[in-house]
Amino acid sequence: MDKINVTQQNIKHKRKLLAQRRRRARLRLLILLLFLGVVVTGVLFAGYALVSLGSRLNQEYQTMYEGYTQRQQARRGTIDPRFDGYTNVLIMGLDEGVDMDGSPEKKADGIVVASFENNSGRLRFIHIPQDTWVNVTGSKEQTKIKYLYAMGGAPMMTRQVNALLGISIHQYIVLDMAVFSELIDAIDGVDIYVEEDMNYDDAEGNISIHLPQGYQHLNGQQAQQYLRYRSDDLDDLGRMQRQQRFCKALYQNLLQFKTLTKLPTIAEIIKQRVETSAEIFDSVYLANTLRHLSSVPPESIILPGAPAADDPSIWVLDDAAAAQRIQELFPAEGPSEEK
């Protein structure tokens, strides 16, 4: 009898332990399910938040990009797909001048199109004489191209050069003489041969130029003097030819390894002091273009023409010769593939 009671008690005890284990197992399962529910809910919430954030960022990006394209359209006009193989940059050097009433105004003293072949990395310079006589785009007015900056700024100059050359300008850069000097000093100057003694003083215009003939290492101020000098037999044409030589010398300087250490300084000057159409959306593209610059010396042309018979201060474009040169620089089959 006692054995039966002990057996029954053992059975009851085992059943009690088993019931306790089952309750603990159910409790652990419940806790696990609650934990999984919290995790899944968190994941879903985080996913929703990321999707919402991504959607907002995409909308903001699209809005920013639409604003960028609208600004670029206003600045440079429509880009012709025929020139997608090139990066054409209009560079304008400003100088202080006066208008017809004697009031101060800025004029484009130097006008150059730097054209990069994207595939080959080759660079070409198209120099536009500042006194080129143009029919102002969008009006019946005629004037020297250098005065357009005062009339409508860089966008007006860009649209005029688009029409004058029959090409698309992708970006523009505007800098005055002081900034130009800073940039030349930032790369430690430029080596060039000064073809004759250059001596010219204009107290009223605050110009003093004194450079001896021979090979010279020009700092920023001296480079400015070299480019502004025009008191010789060739007058403005001679000035254009010096600009050609200077651009080639500057290009060779930029290709030197030592220039790499100057890039942060150059970038800071451009960021703070230079007017440009390039924005953050253009930075990677432009950096890639510059990274593939060719070691081949750049080709350089002066837009063909001649002084006007009744006013030698006006440069009259030779339309046929200019169109021929532009066709040679931008052939219908597109840029070369050669590296």
Automatic annotation (TrEMBL):
User: Gene3D superfamilies, from UniProt?
Assistant: LCP protein
Transmembrane ranges? 29-51
Domain Cell envelope-related transcriptional attenuator, residue spans? 108-254
For this UniProt record, give its keywords in alphabetical order, as a comma-separated list.
Membrane, Transmembrane, Transmembrane helix
Pfam families to which the protein is assigned, alphabetical:
LytR_cpsA_psr
| InterPro entries noted in UniProt | LytR/CpsA/Psr_CW_biosynth, LytR_CpsA_psr
Q: Give the protein family.
A: Belongs to the LytR/CpsA/Psr (LCP) family.
The name under which this protein is listed is: Transcriptional attenuator, LytR family
Lineage per the UniProt record? Bacteria, Bacillati, Bacillota, Negativicutes, Selenomonadales
